[in-house]
């Protein structure tokens, strides 16, 4: 842990100093906190005071000798985003030297932690984060959790290369493909139909078309190859009643 | 809790893909030297990170304060921790905890224990004062409890020895030495703790040894050794024997004739060991002793003269507490390095000389192993090393040593052969500059010759030249299919030839010339993964000092690079080869404060500015045309102009800017030297134009007040000294970095802003902010303000009215909150300035560099409402007060680049691309395309699929054509 503040000032006056232990628990966003890189660090910042602590082997950040104040806690990890926290450290009502045990019946807790939102005023506090006081070997340690905000950081974008399959997935292409199927498939279907059925079908079609018999779908007889070649023409499979060269200019 | 996450994704979705790093370009386009710094002799060792496994890692705490573990097999970094950030002196200490997976470091005022495998902290503690020594307390019985640590501090003129618990770093006991003696070192054997301090004044010290009880920390005894004639500084004490069974303290007399040794705990006894001189005076003496308590109490004295080195091995008799010479290692020419390693009780000395590696046991002079030295290239001689000796069978040994050479490489020598080498000398760069590769001018010269001679001979010359060129034709034809295939197939089209420096069509091949704090210069090839083209030891910088480079400049016309240091030293080298052209030693010229590249009547040159911002007289032929801005004695900012009088030009102060009382100037930034602007206005959605305020003569001055927590920014006109714009921020932490950048018609800066009692009424926030301001000629579109009708204008007389106010720019400002501090800001440069600029910010807490696009940092983003269609057309979207640093904006992506001090950019020939080079401890370089690579076919363009599509169409036509023809003929018959 490094302190870039005026140490001399801190040491010369009997300032209350608190020991904070920020824990990174296992969470759905980060199942194994031990996979965080060794460069992960946390900073506790307020005006003129800044503390920095590296991530420890037991997935905690340890801040010793933190003076009272309202701090912003940021965790900087190369792999995950962490939510910023607001950490308020108060001097307890009964001012006691840090080595002695504080009276547990003090009214305001010494350490309070909330979530905070960047871009909102400081007074806008979020959810309260539970703070536990652990007394180990006669020393008080205040501990709370810091959780990652989202899954792993994605640094790269994969280039969208050209893929024929991707092109086929396009709905426009799918619609075009379906209509092509109908255009080319229908005549064959008609040819292979039972003559009676065919007659029946044609009869029904005739009656159902509202605009008269000219009817049918012009697309039905569309000859793609001929159209591509710039010529019109009726295919061999064209029904005989079809008027030749309709709608196509030469 | 959901709010920030959602906003985060909102920002992510808005960002166009142009700013991101492509997966296939990462690690290909960018390059990174993951460096540690030069390993120090006492903080480098092999250690087993896992108790039960034989594999070792190589640990070091470098001169830059970087603690790292290196895989000795291949030489890659396993983990790193940058500890030197806040330490003022970078003398650190690093000790292994033998038999445990822990290493303990101490630097500055903090002591930390690290997990040797993962690099995570186990515990850390911080004290006042500065660390002087660190030892791990050995226990006699091999109990499993974590070993306690002894830390010696100097605090307020007193020595404090603190025993830190091995489990959590808490203080077990503290011993305060009430006297004003200088604490030197701490040492232990199993029974006692010895604190060695220098007693007396700087005219000569006596050594005071205080003996403490390791359990209670109480003083048991104290004695003084009379050394007044020999010891004048802490450096004169050679060694205070570490955790060996019989720790010693050793020093030499002043003429280096005798080595004096006291076995710690033996009161008043000084043993004289003569140092043998063979050829010339002894210049350097070093002692090496094992650090383990179970090792035999042997040590080696390694003495150097100017031309040779030799060594003597001594044994300590534990029962009589006497020292006797065991044997000597022969004299060998040149420099050498001896390292000690121990395995159980055995102690091995490994001697590295110019041409071989020799391993001897401390017990006898028999050579256990001898290997001829095979290095891949000349690396200078060995300075110091750490080695590991392994006994393979009864009489075969293997040794590997990590050795620092005089060329500042860190080389692993495995049984005499080079295993790997790390270019640690490249760390700690203090200055860098881009340089163009000189154009090959042979053809141009030949053509010039032809043009000048008479037509007939020119014609003959040309024909012969073409016939000569025919010899390259077979090669060319041979390579043709390969070139064709390589241009079609995906992948890096034409891999650059190694070792050939040539310009390329895109302008990616450029050199970067860097100067390190240890007095070395390197030339890096940015187009070839930053490979080292040349290196040169420019100046010898004494240990503990840094080369203070004030200016580095590569002259494009002459092909030379000039480097100027603070003490007046200067060196001029050939940019492409690194040959020294001219140099002067430190002290031969006046001390300089800074340098600036100026444009004289004949040429550009690097003008040194003396102390107090006085450049002094220069010859008239070199007189700079520009207005200069310098900083005076008390930090005030001054404008200078050179006035030519006869043969000389004198600087004249035209204006002075003095910051307000109790403010100090912390930064002055100007527009980059290459800062072209393609468009003089911003076209708005309704087709009107906001004209940019484009004044080349402006600087942004940052002043801070530490007491009042204020930061002010002033935009000054450098010709007239007028303040064009100023702003003040309250509640600014002046200890946090304040970075600023100025380019085109905008400037930006970042700071930590906090709630202040006076701003309680306003919704105040706590956090890092980035503030961006754009300057326009007028706030009304299609209006050019007061300068509208004037074809030319001067800052000195802005209008025809005498003493008129200067034309002030209309400034639009917006601030954004950012998640972390910005250490340094710079802006991308492109050739024409058509490409939008990107703000490059270094993030010291994330060890990264982020490129923030201008579209995000637009102060004209509509606040509190959705943008109108006209604004959308301009690319403005709704203002949101937070900019999250999307990982896709991080130029360094997964790489961790530590200690970046500065980022320099350079335009490529391609307008879309800017070259980026970041330096500090690590070196990182990449290319960025802030407006997408619009003028080059990227890797996304699949040539193979294009060719195959064309072929498929062709095949289709060939197949369908006869079908169609048949059909047409049939159709005619049918009709």
UniProtKB/TrEMBL annotation, chain A:
It comes from the Eukaryota. Residues 35-175 form the ER membrane protein complex subunit 7 beta-sandwich domain. It is a single-pass membrane protein. The keyword Transmembrane applies. It holds the Pfam family EMC7_beta-sandw. Keywords: Membrane, Signal, Transmembrane, Transmembrane helix. Residues 230-250 are annotated as: Disordered. The chain crosses the membrane at residues 172-190. Its main location: membrane. GO terms for cellular component: EMC complex. It is found in: Membrane. Residues 1-17 form the signal peptide. PANTHER family: ER MEMBRANE PROTEIN COMPLEX SUBUNIT 7. This is ER membrane protein complex subunit 7 beta-sandwich domain-containing protein. It comes from Venustampulla echinocandica.
UniProtKB/TrEMBL annotation, chain B:
Residues 1-20 form the signal peptide. One of its GO terms (cellular component) is EMC complex. The chain crosses the membrane at residues 944-964. The keyword Transmembrane applies. Residues 743-973 form the ER membrane protein complex subunit 1 C-terminal domain. It is a single-pass type I membrane protein. InterPro entries: Beta-prop_EMC1_1st, EMC1, EMC1_C, Quinoprotein_ADH-like_sf, WD40/YVTN_repeat-like_dom_sf. Residues 782-804 are annotated as: Disordered. Residues 20-424 form the EMC1 first beta-propeller domain. Belongs to the EMC1 family. Component of the ER membrane protein complex (EMC). This is ER membrane protein complex subunit 1. It comes from Venustampulla echinocandica. The lineage of its organism: Eukaryota, Fungi, Dikarya, Ascomycota, Pezizomycotina.
């Amino acid at each position: 842990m490094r302190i870039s503040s005026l140490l001399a000032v801190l040491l010369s006056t009997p300032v209350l100093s608190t020991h904070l232990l920020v824990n990174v628990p296992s969470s759905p966003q980060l199942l194994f906190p031990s996979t965080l890189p060794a460069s992960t660090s946390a900073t506790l910042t307020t005006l003129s005071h800044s503390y920095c602590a590296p991530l420890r082997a037991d997935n905690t950040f340890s801040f010793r000798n933190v003076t009272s104040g309202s701090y912003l806690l940021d965790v900087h990890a190369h792999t995950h985003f962490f939510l910023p926290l607001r950490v308020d450290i108060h001097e307890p009502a009964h001012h006691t030297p840090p080595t002695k045990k504080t009276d547990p019946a003090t009214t305001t807790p010494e350490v309070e932690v909330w979530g905070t939102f960047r871009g909102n005023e400081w007074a806008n506090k979020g959810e309260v984060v539970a703070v536990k006081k652990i007394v180990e070997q006669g020393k008080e340690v205040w501990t709370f959790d810091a959780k990652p905000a989202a899954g792993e950081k994605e640094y790269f974008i994969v280039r969208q290369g050209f893929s024929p399959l991707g092109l086929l997935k396009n709905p426009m292409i799918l619609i075009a493909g379906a209509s092509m199927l109908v255009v080319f498939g229908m005549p064959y279907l008609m040819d292979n139909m039972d003559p009676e059925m065919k007659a029946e079908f044609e009869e029904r079609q005739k009656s159902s078309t509202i605009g008269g018999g000219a009817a049918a779908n012009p697309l039905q007889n569309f000859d793609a190859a001929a159209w591509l070649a710039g010529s019109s023409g009726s295919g061999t499979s064209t029904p005989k009643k079809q008027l030749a060269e309709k709608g196509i200019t030469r | 809790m959901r709010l920030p996450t959602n906003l985060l994704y909102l920002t992510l979705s808005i960002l166009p893909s142009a700013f991101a790093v492509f997966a296939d370009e990462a690690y290909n386009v960018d390059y990174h030297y993951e460096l540690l710094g030069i390993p120090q002799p006492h903080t480098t060792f092999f250690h087993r990170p896992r108790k039960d496994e034989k594999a070792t890692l190589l640990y070091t705490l470098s001169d830059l304060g970087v603690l790292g573990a290196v895989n000795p097999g291949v030489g890659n970094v396993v983990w790193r921790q940058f500890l030197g950030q806040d330490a003022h002196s970078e003398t650190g200490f690093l000790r292994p905890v033998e038999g445990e997976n822990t290493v303990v470091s101490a630097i500055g005022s903090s002591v930390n224990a690290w997990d040797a495998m993962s690099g995570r902290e186990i515990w850390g503690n911080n004290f006042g004062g500065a660390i002087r020594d660190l030892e791990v307390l050995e226990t006699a019985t091999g109990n499993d409890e974590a070993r306690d640590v002894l830390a010696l501090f100097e605090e307020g003129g007193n020595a404090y020895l603190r025993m830190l618990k091995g489990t959590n770093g808490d203080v077990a006991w503290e011993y305060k030495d009430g006297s004003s003696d200088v604490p030197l070192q701490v040492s232990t054997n199993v029974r006692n703790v010895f604190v060695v301090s220098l007693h007396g004044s700087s005219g000569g010290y006596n050594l005071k040894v205080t003996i403490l009880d390791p359990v209670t920390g109480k003083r048991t005894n104290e004695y003084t050794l009379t050394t007044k004639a020999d010891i004048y500084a802490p450096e004169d004490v050679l060694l205070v024997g570490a955790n060996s069974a019989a720790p010693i303290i050793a020093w030499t007399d002043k003429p280096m004739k005798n080595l004096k040794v006291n076995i710690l705990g033996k009161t008043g006894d000084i043993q004289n060991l003569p140092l043998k001189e063979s050829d010339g005076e002894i210049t350097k003496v070093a002692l090496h002793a094992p650090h383990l308590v179970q090792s035999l109490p042997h040590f080696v004295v390694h003495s150097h003269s100017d031309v040779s080195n030799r060594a003597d091995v001594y044994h300590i008799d534990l029962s009589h507490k006497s020292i006797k010479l065991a044997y000597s290692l022969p004299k060998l020419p040149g420099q050498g390095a001896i390292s000690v390693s121990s395995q159980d009780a055995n102690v091995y000395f490994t001697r590295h000389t110019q041409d071989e590696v020799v391993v001897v046991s401390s017990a006898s002079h028999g050579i256990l192993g001898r290997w001829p030295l095979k290095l891949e290239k000349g690396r200078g001689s060995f300075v110091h090393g750490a080695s590991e000796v392994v006994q393979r069978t009864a009489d075969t040994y293997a040794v590997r040593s990590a050795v620092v050479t005089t060329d500042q490489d860190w080389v692993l020598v495995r049984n005499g052969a080079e295993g790997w080498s790390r270019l640690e000398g490249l760390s700690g760069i203090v200055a860098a500059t881009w340089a163009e590769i000189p154009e090959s001018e042979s053809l141009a010269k030949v053509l010039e010759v032809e043009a000048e001679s008479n037509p007939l001979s020119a014609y003959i010359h040309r024909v012969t030249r073409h016939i000569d060129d025919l010899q390259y034709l077979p090669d060319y034809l041979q390579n043709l299919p390969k070139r064709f295939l390589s241009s079609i197939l995906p992948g890096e089209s034409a891999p650059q030839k190694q070792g050939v420096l040539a310009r390329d069509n895109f302008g990616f091949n450029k050199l970067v010339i860097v100067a390190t704090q240890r007095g070395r210069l390197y030339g890096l090839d940015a187009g070839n993964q930053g490979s080292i083209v040349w290196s040169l030891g420019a100046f010898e910088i004494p240990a503990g000092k840094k080369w203070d480079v004030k200016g580095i400049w590569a002259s494009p016309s002459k092909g030379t690079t000039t480097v100027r240091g603070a003490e007046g030293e200067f060196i001029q080298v050939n940019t492409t080869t690194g040959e020294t052209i001219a140099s002067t030693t430190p002290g031969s010229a006046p001390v300089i404060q800074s340098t600036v590249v100026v444009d004289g009547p004949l040429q550009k040159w690097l003008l040194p500015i003396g102390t107090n911002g006085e450049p002094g007289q220069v010859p008239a032929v070199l007189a700079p045309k520009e207005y200069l801005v310098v900083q005076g004695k008390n930090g005030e900012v001054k404008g200078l102009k050179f006035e030519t009088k006869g043969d000389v030009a004198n600087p004249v102060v035209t204006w002075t800017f003095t910051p307000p009382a109790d403010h100090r100037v912390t930064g002055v930034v100007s527009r980059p030297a290459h800062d072209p602007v393609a468009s003089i206005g911003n076209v708005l959605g309704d087709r009107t134009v906001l004209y940019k305020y484009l004044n080349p003569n402006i600087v942004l001055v940052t002043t801070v007040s530490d007491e009042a927590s204020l930061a002010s920014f002033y935009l000054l006109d450098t010709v007239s000294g007028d303040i064009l714009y100023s702003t003040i921020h309250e509640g600014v932490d002046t200890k946090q970095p304040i970075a600023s950048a100025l380019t085109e018609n905008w400037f930006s800066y970042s700071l930590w802003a906090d709630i202040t009692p006076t701003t309680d009424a306003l919704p105040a926030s706590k956090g890092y902010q980035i503030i961006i301001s754009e300057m326009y000629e007028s706030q009304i579109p299609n209006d050019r303000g007061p300068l509208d009708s004037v074809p030319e204008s001067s800052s000195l007389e802005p209008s025809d009215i005498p003493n008129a106010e200067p034309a002030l720019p209309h400034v639009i400002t917006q601030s954004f909150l950012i998640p972390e501090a910005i250490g340094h800001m710079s802006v991308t440069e492109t050739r024409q300035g058509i490409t939008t600029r990107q703000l490059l910010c270094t993030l010291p807490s994330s060890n990264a560099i982020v490129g923030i696009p201008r579209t995000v940092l637009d102060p004209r983003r509509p606040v509190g409402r959705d943008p109108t269609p006209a604004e959308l057309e301009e690319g403005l979207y709704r203002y949101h007060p937070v900019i999250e640093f999307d990982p896709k904006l991080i130029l360094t992506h997964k790489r961790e680049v530590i200690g970046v001090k500065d980022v320099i950019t350079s335009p490529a020939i391609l307008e879309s691309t800017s070259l980026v080079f970041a330096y500090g401890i690590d070196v990182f370089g990449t290319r960025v395309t802030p407006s997408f690579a619009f003028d080059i076919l990227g890797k996304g363009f699949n040539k193979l699929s294009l060719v195959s599509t064309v072929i498929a169409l062709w095949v289709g036509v060939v197949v369908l054509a006869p079908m169609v023809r048949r059909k047409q003929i049939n159709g005619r018959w049918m009709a």
